[in-house]
Design a protein that fits this description.
The complex is a heterodimer of chains A (431) and B (407). Chain A contains 17 helices and 8 strands. Chain A has 431 residues and is α/β, with parallel strands linked by helices. Chain A starts with 10 loop residues before the first helix and ends with a helix. The two termini of chain B are 32 Å apart. Classes of the chains: A alpha/beta (431), B alpha/beta (407).
Chain lengths: 431, 407
């Protein structure tokens, strides 16, 4: 399988491209632009909109305006000597990234590029409708089994929100708090948070993301499907993706330690048919298959630890899809095994027969930091600076850290807030 | 200890290192207060700056960590991760509070820049040697020093043996350092056992030792990235004995089994057998941060803190080193700040204070008095400083010798 685009580009954009728009672009803009156009089928709606905004903005410029806009970038490229590099103008490569990053003018180049994007965004802000006023919710869950210190658990959040005491659900309940909030199983689905967002006009699976370091939450949603084979939410379980991960790790581990080999392996991984490696909720959704491929290629521990997968996956979802509802549920990783852990992090159970032992305190600390990182990732984007509630749920403490606008109803509730009431408040927020 | 904590808690601000960069100024105030409390000066010391020619008889040990942020080390909250650096060593150290990596904040380039005194901009994968001479080459060529006197012992898989000598025409590998990557031996042993289907051996200490010995006997030292006495296909008996003893301790002691532990054990044996005059140790357990485990990253910092202190104790307990050795401890760079588009502590590529500004401690014979140096210095300044301590003639480099040392 290749990433050849099958869907037509928007007519206006295609016209601009036919008229030679790409010829206006500096060399270092070409790889990412061409790759986005090439991968059009695999872009989320938000990304497509961004590409269209940028390119139509550029197409709207007169030759003189275009030259002025790119002047700094072109000047820096000349100083860098990009023309003499082995620099791909067709796609992003590791070699490209390496050449740019070790240039003494790299920071200067980044600043010049940022100015171009700032100008495009400024234009988009003037010409596009304001950000939709619909409410958004980020639900970050540190599960019961991870021990947390109540006196320090929210310290890293630096008082950007406030802690709220919760009551229940019972520790022995058959459903996890996350399952209760999402409204699974089917009998209780009527008020599920995912359903509420999925029913919004124009909502797609890209508007609802559930990332689970384990499998329970995704399992429960899949076992009570919305419709046969239909998933109006993006469902990603670290454990359910084990085969995908193992196959990918195997390929990457064969990579030689040099740039040309790395790009060759990455090229192979970009072209591999990953469908057989995917669980059903992913296999049938090309954009998510490609999102996962890209996520694994970008590293950041997504292939290694469930919590890193959840954090980096959520951060990339926020950047690329701007979902209305994102649930990130963390979990436990194993303790490093003696000797082999210094060597190979992936598939420790396959290479070392010693039994895996959960590192619960360590996983708890990892989850605390990574939950904050998801919020920080969201807070980089305008969409999440307004009308967004972020709830970080510390199940073992029956406590949540809440960042939300002052009108958020939870702030008016008497504490401890019953769990069913929390669910109602969140459902009302999204309704 | 209690006095120090009181001073620190009085003068440090709250956790400024978490969301955003930590405050160096806060640390400076605290460290200065600490030294005042100990009756030590907090301003730059006079003297130094004159670098003699000819061998000085001095020895230098440089301990380099991978990327660690100030937030997790010399800050109010980070200090608990470095009890030995902040407790046992700071009181006798010359502490440079703002040491800047102004180059490429990737491993091979950072280490090469420290070694050469010039900012290196090389291939990230260690396929090319530094373009200007390293400290080892200056030392060996100018002072006719034996190769056994210069060693690099490193955990970091991102380095290669090319880090030990430059491609400069009048210098090069014949003047380079011995380079050993103990962790690579472990990597090779595990991969070898896996390929042969001997996974059961990896859970048994005695069999692990046999696997490691087998790799040592296999003789593919070039494949391990080692370059010891020009031995690509063989190890000199003394070196072999060093490695075997380190492996034995590593496997049988029942102690921690991280890559840095093995690096330390090899270092200890090299010090005992060869007493090198210039020894660089590079720890990298902290780089587990790339996989996103904050807890394991902190564990790596604590391991580095403990092992650096142990090396200092080894120096003080060894007649070859005691009273004639200066030890430097510094990170390669920081890590990216929380909230950065580069995913915070996972990486070290943002152009931020959190990534570029680190610290450095110096201890030992060239340190006249403990002090905190506030002025910014650069990684490339270490090479000419160490060269001066060793008695090398002054060189034309981007880095300049630090004037605070007694030469």
């Amino acid at each position: 399988m290749t990433n050849q685009a099958h869907e037509k580009l928007p007519e206006q954009l295609q016209k601009a491209l036919d008229e030679g728009l790409l010829k206006q672009l500096p060399r270092t803009f070409l790889p990412v632009t061409r790759q986005q156009l090439h991968d059009w089928d695999y872009l989320f709606p938000y990304e497509r909109q961004s590409v269209v905004h940028l390119l139509l903005f550029l197409a709207s410029l007169s030759p003189a305006e275009s030259t002025a806009l790119f002047r700094e970038v072109v000047q820096v490229e000349e100083k860098m000597g990009v023309r003499d590099w082995q620099f791909s103008t067709e796609e992003q490569t590791i070699l490209n990234a390496s050449l740019l990053a070790r240039s003494p003018y790299y920071q200067e180049w980044r600043k010049a590029v940022q100015k171009v994007f700032d100008a495009a965004e400024e234009r988009a802000a003037k010409t596009s409708p304001a950000i939709a006023a619909s409410h958004r919710l980020l639900l970050l869950v540190i599960p019961q089994k991870l021990p947390l210190d109540g006196s320090t658990v929210w310290r890293r959040w630096q008082s950007v929100g406030r802690a709220v005491k919760l009551d229940g659900p019972d520790a022995g309940a058959s459903q996890s708090p996350t399952q209760v909030l999402l409204g699974t199983p089917r009998a209780e689905r009527g008020a599920g948070l995912a359903d509420i967002v999925a029913r919004r006009p124009g909502s797609t699976a890209a508007n609802v993301w559930i990332l689970d370091a384990g499998h329970e939450v995704v399992d429960s949603l899949i076992n009570a499907p919305f419709e046969q084979g239909s998933y109006p939410a993006t469902l990603l379980s670290y454990e359910r993706l084990a085969v995908f991960r193992e196959q990918f790790s195997h390929e990457i581990n064969t990579m030689q330690k040099d740039l040309s080999a790395a790009d060759a392996v990455y090229d192979r991984l970009r072209k591999s048919d990953v469908t057989p490696w995917c669980p059903p909720e992913v296999a049938g959704v090309p954009v998510i298959r490609e999102y996962l491929r890209s996520l694994y290629l970008s590293g950041n521990g997504a292939l290694i630890y469930g919590n890193s997968f959840v954090e980096w996956g959520a951060s990339e979802a926020l950047r690329r899809a701007r979902p209305d509802l994102l649930v990130a549920r963390f979990g436990a990783r194993s303790k490093p095994k003696p000797f082999t852990s210094v060597v190979v992090f992936e598939n420790p159970d396959q290479i070392n027969p010693l039994p895996a032992v959960d590192d619960l305190p360590g996983s708890g600390l990892d989850a605390q930091v990574l939950a904050l990182y998801v919020w920080l990732a969201a807070s980089r984007y305008d969409e999440y600076r307004i009308n967004t509630a972020c709830i970080c749920l510390a199940e073992s403490l029956s406590e949540a850290y809440v960042i939300a606008p002052p009108e958020f109803a939870l702030f008016r509730e008497a504490q401890p807030v019953p769990f069913v009431r929390l669910r109602t408040v969140l459902a009302e927020w999204l309704s | 200890m209690r006095v120090k904590e009181q001073l620190l808690s009085r003068t440090f601000s709250s956790s400024s290192g978490r969301v955003g960069d930590p405050s160096r100024r806060d640390f400076l105030s605290a460290a200065a207060a600490l030294l005042v409390g100990l009756g030590l000066p907090s301003t730059s010391l006079a003297g130094g700056g004159q670098h003699g020619s000819g061998g000085s008889g001095q020895r230098v040990v440089v301990v380099i960590f991978g990327g660690v942020r100030r937030a997790e080390t010399f800050s109010l909250e980070g200090i608990e991760n470095i009890p030995h650096l902040s407790g046992d060593l700071l009181r006798r150290a010359l502490f440079f509070a703002d040491v800047r990596n102004e180059g490429v904040t990737a491993h091979f380039n950072a280490i090469s820049s420290i070694f050469t005194g010039n900012w290196q901009r090389l291939d990230d994968w260690g396929k090319f040697a530094p373009t200007t001479p390293t400290l080892f080459e200056f030392f060996r060529k100018q002072l006719r020093v034996a190769q056994s006197d210069t060693w690099i012992i490193a955990s970091n898989k991102a380095l290669t043996s090319l880090v030990g000598a430059s491609s400069a025409s009048e210098y090069g590998p014949s003047y380079g350092a011995n380079v050993v990557f103990p962790k690579q031996l472990m990597v090779a042993a595990v991969v070898n056992a896996l390929q042969a289907g001997r996974t059961g051996n990896l859970a048994d200490r005695a069999r692990i030792e046999a696997e490691l010995q087998a790799m040592l006997e296999a003789g593919n030292y070039e494949g391990l990235g080692w370059n010891v006495f020009d031995g690509v296909n063989h190890l000199e008996p003394r070196v072999r004995s060093v490695i075997e003893d380190a492996i034995s301790t590593f496997v049988r002691s029942g102690g921690p089994t991280s890559g840095d532990e093995l690096t330390y054990l090899v270092t200890r044996e090299v010090m005992r057998r060869f007493s090198p005059r210039l020894l660089v140790i590079i720890f990298s357990d902290v780089e587990v941060a790339h996989f996103g485990s904050y807890a394991l990253h902190l564990a790596g910092i604590r391991t580095g803190d403990r092992l650096a202190y142990q090396i200092w104790r080894d120096i003080e307990g060894d007649a070859e080193y005691k009273n004639r050795t200066t030890m430097f401890i510094l990170p390669e760079f920081g890590r990216d700040p929380d909230g950065s588009a580069t995913n915070g502590f996972f990486n070290h590529r943002s152009d931020s204070e959190s990534t570029r500004s680190t610290w450095m401690m110096a201890l030992g014979s060239a340190v006249q008095k403990a002090a905190v140096i506030e002025r910014p210095v650069r990684h490339v300044d270490l090479c000419p400083t160490v060269a001066g301590l060793l008695g090398c003639p002054r060189m034309e480099l981007q880095g300049v010798p630090l004037s605070e040392f007694r030469v």
